[in-house]
Every structure is written in structure tokens, then in C-alpha cells.
Amino acid sequence: MGSDVSLYDFELPRERIAQRPRERGRSRLFIIKEDGSFSHGIFPDIVGHFGPGDILVINDTKVLKARLAGESATGGKVEILFTRALDEKRFRALVRPGKRFRPGASVRVGDAALRVISREGREAELAVENGPGIMTILESLGQVPLPPYIKRPPEPGDELRYQTVFASKPGSVAAPTAGLHFTADILERIKERGASVLSVTLHVGPGTFNPIRAADISEHRMESEYYLVPDETARAILEAKGSTGRVFVCGTTCTRALETWALGRGPKEGWTNLFIYPGHKFKVPDALITNFHMPRSTPLALVSAFCGRETILRAYAEALARGYTFGSYGDAMLIMRRAAEI
């Protein structure tokens, strides 16, 4: 188990980072089997891995149109990335350029006037002084907050495609990307095989894109994110763990919510800053559905913990050789293993 961040680095050609998604449900699927061997298919093949008594846990968070463009009092352009509502009109955001967000300054977004309450580094607290609530402003004027490695402006199609088909709880500023591969038909076919589809909520914050900058990954600190594990989901997981059912977890965000609950680090609802890296003893997932992640990223550390760093980097090397695409709009991976009992 290595804690040196350089062990989680690999060469990723820029052209292999997907700038646009494939048709939903038609992504390629890379499978890591329980014995560490690999196989390949397309995403609908995932249905065949489910059986009676199995559970698929999805993240039902909904991505907000969190990116706002505006002007300072002097007419300079400003950018605001909403991160968290404090009340109907006060909110926190990442802002730039910082010199235009001094405390007391005003900025305008459409017809709404915003006042800067405080700022520390890139993060600021703002209040709507003249205009509707911040959620109304986001819905009417906001843009889809695509990841920083997608080097194009948002397009109309992103409002639909950068959202899962089961998104229902607004609050994220980034998509739970493993869920983007599912169609309603694929979910229905999984149920037809006798499996259950259940949800958790974890509102994904902008920190999901922060690289691990600490030389020792154990010193990295995650930003807190809201999560909820409903009673129905918790009960079903405990029942599956007491029988022959397997728990398939969709995404690293789902995994962090479930592991927080299972490890007793929090109640079924709250805030989690759990950082999962090699050495973590998993309690919930028997299988993990995920995407291909960026070098030195926290999701890469999590999948390395799940199946082993050497295995995941060997898989990534084969994926690059076979033309798989990486990132939020990239291809999918299914990792099979058996988790510890809760």
C-alpha cells in the first residue's frame, strides 16, 4: 500500500479525455473480474452480471446549472460557481477574478444584484440584494458546470446529458458520472433479473475535481458534502449482506456515502469528508461501477483501494491501448470483488 502521490500518476493523452459523451447506454465497458483478469463489452452487458437478490445503489442527486457569468460594478467580466446555499438568498461560491469580489463589492448577474459578504482565496459568500432567490437565478441564468478538463463551452445538449436519468434531488455542482451510462431500459432489465434498484443522495461538490496535492495522500483533506442514506436502502443492504445478494454500487460518490454510514462515521444523513484510499476496509460494495479517472485524483485513489493500485493502473494501461475514453463523459468500468460483512 503506497501513500506517495506519485504512485497514482500515469500518462493520459489529452485526446483520450472525452469532450462529448457517446449515446447514453452505448459506452464501452471494461470489466475487472474477481480474479483480476479483464474482459470488454458495451455498457448494456452490465445487465447480465445481476441476479436475484442483488442490489444496485444509485446516487439520485441532480446537477444544478451552477455556473454564472456576470459583471462587476465597473463592467469587468466575472465568473461565479455556486457551491452551497446558506438560505434563500445567501450562498457560497468559487469566484474569479478575486480582485472584483472584495467584501462589500457588488456584481450583477442578469437583472439580479449580488453583494459580496466575505471572501477567502477563491471562495466567497454572496447575497442576492435585488432579485429572486439564488436557486431561481441558477435555473434561469446558470450554465451546466462541466468539468475543467472539458475544453469547450457548455452546449444545449449538456443540460440533458450531464444529468442521470434518475436525478431528482437538486444540489450537485458535478455529475455522479458513473450514473450517466444508465438508461431507463437498462434499469428495467436489471429489475427483471430479480435485482433491486435503490438510491442514496450525495451532493457532489467542486472538490471532486481537485487533484491530490499532498506528497503523502493520507494528508489530503476532502471537502464536506451532504449525504442521505434512506432507511429503505440501509435495510436492503443489511438484508443482502445477510444472504447471498450482492451490492453493486454506482460511482465513487455513492461509495463514500455508504461507507460513511457503514463505518459508523455518521448517521444516515449528514455531511461527509471521508477520503478513501488504499488501506481502507470496504464494508458495503461487492462490485463498483465507475468511470476512468484523472491522474492523482481522489476517485482514482478510491478505485485503487477497491481493487489494488497495481491492478487499476494495469487496467488503465490496457484501456488506453484499446481506445477507451476517460473522464466524466468517458467510458465505464465494472470492478467485481467481495466486500467485508457489515
How would you explain this protein's 3D organization?
It is a single chain. This protein is α/β, with parallel strands linked by helices and 342 residues long. It has 2 domains: 5-63 and 158-336, QueA-like, CATH 3.40.1780.10; 67-141, Beta Barrel (Thrombin, subunit H), CATH 2.40.10.240. Helix content is 19%, strand content 27%. It has a 9-stranded mixed β-sheet with strand order 2-1-17-16-14-3-12-13-15. Strand 6 (77-85) and strand 7 form a beta hairpin. It starts with 27 loop residues before the first strand and ends in a 6-residue tail after the last strand. The model has no long low-confidence stretch (mean pLDDT 95).
List the helices and strands and how they pair.
Elements lengths: L27 E5 L5 E5 L12 E5 L1 E3 L3 E6 L4 E9 L4 E7 L9 E4 L2 E9 L2 E8 L3 H8 L16 H4 L7 E4 L11 H9 L3 E7 L22 E4 L2 H11 L5 E4 L1 H11 L6 E4 L14 E5 L6 H10 L1 H13 L10 E5 L6
Parallel strand pairs: 1-17, 3-12, 3-14, 4-11, 14-16
Antiparallel strand pairs: 1-2, 5-6, 5-8, 6-7, 7-10, 8-9, 9-10, 12-13, 13-15, 16-17
> What is the helix/strand order?
EEEEEEEEEEHHEHEEHEHEEHHE
Tell me the span between the first and last alpha carbons. 23 Å
What's the structural domain tally? 2
Question: What is the approximate shape?
Answer: globular
Q: How would you classify the quaternary structure? A: single chain
CATH architecture of the largest domain: 3-Layer(aba) Sandwich
**CATH fold call of the largest domain:** QueA-like
Number of strands: 17
What does the average pLDDT come to?
95
What is the CATH superfamily of the largest domain? QueA-like
Overall CATH class of the largest domain: Alpha Beta
What's the gyration radius in Å? Answer: 20 Å
Our estimate of the beta-strand percent is 25-35%
